[in-house]
Structures are given as structure tokens and as C-alpha cells.
Amino acid sequence: MRAAIDRGDRPDAIFCFTDSLAIGAVSALSSAGLHVPDDVAVAGFDDIVDGRFSVPPLTTVTFDKRQFVDRTLELLAARIADRQGAAELVLIPHEIVVRASSGARG
């Protein structure tokens, strides 16, 4: 985030791979004098507890982590047993938890 700001790149919104990265982005934006969400909206992925208490609270994508881990381990075991097996697309149910970092008011 800091490198993008230093280059003069300022997106309208940022979606980060994890909530931890999103919280870091919020910090970098704030250090650069930008306000979340007024200047840049920010969202993350994985719904860690810290995101609920960040300032502003972090919009995130939440999902059943236990189901994710269980399915991942099943697929890994299948790949180890059959390295030539077909790839499989798996969709884990998820939802967007809208909080103030994306401009939600309330």
C-alpha cells in the first residue's frame, strides 16, 4: 500500500487477500493523510476478530473456516493418493459483512 501511495496511485477502493493486510492498508492510508472510507474504501477477507475493532471497523468476507480446512485436507489427501487426478472446483459458502471501512453508515 505504501508503495502505491508513494507512486501517486490512489484507488477508490482496495480489497485485500486477508483482513490483516486490510488493517495494514488502513494504517498506511491513514499515515499518508487519507481517510477510510471517505478517500479510499477498504475490505478484507477472513473475518478476523481484530477487524471488528479496527478504526473504522473492517468490511470483510466471512466463511466457514472449519469447512474450508476440512475440504482442503480432503483434497490434499486425494492429490497425494493420485497425483494425476482431475482438478476440482470447490465453493465454500460465504457472505460479505459490511462495516464502516467500505462506507457503510449505521
Structural summary, described in words:
The chain has 106 residues and is of the alpha/beta class. The chain is built from four helices and four strands, in the order αβαβαβαβ. It has helices spanning 2-7, 19-31, 49-53, 65-81, and strands at 13-15, 41-45, 59-63, 94-97. A four-stranded mixed sheet has the order 1-2-3-4. Helix 3 (49-53) links the parallel strand 2 (41-45) and strand 3 (59-63). The model has no long low-confidence stretch (mean pLDDT 94).
Sheet of most strands: 4 strands, mixed
Distance between the termini: 28 Å
Helix content: 25-40%
Low-confidence stretches: none
Shape summary: elongated
Q: What is the succession of H and E elements? A: HEHEHEHE
Query: SS-based structural class?
Result: alpha/beta
- Work out the helix count: 4
Strand arrangement, major sheet: 1-2-3-4
Mean pLDDT, as a whole number? 94
Number of strands: 4
Percentage beta strand: 15-25%
Radius of gyration: 17 Å
Reconstruct the topology from this structure.
Elements (H helix, E strand, L loop, with lengths): L1 H6 L5 E3 L3 H13 L9 E5 L3 H5 L5 E5 L1 H17 L12 E4 L9
Parallel strand pairs: 1-2, 2-3
Antiparallel strand pairs: 3-4
Q: What would the keywords be for this entry?
A:
4-stranded mixed beta sheet, elongated, 4 helices, single chain, 4 strands, about 110 residues, alpha/beta
Task: Write a concise synopsis of the structure shown.
This protein is of the alpha/beta class and 106 residues long. It has helices at 2-7, 19-31, 49-53, 65-81; strands spanning 13-15, 41-45, 59-63, 94-97. The protein is built from 4 helices and 4 strands; from the N terminus they run αβαβαβαβ.
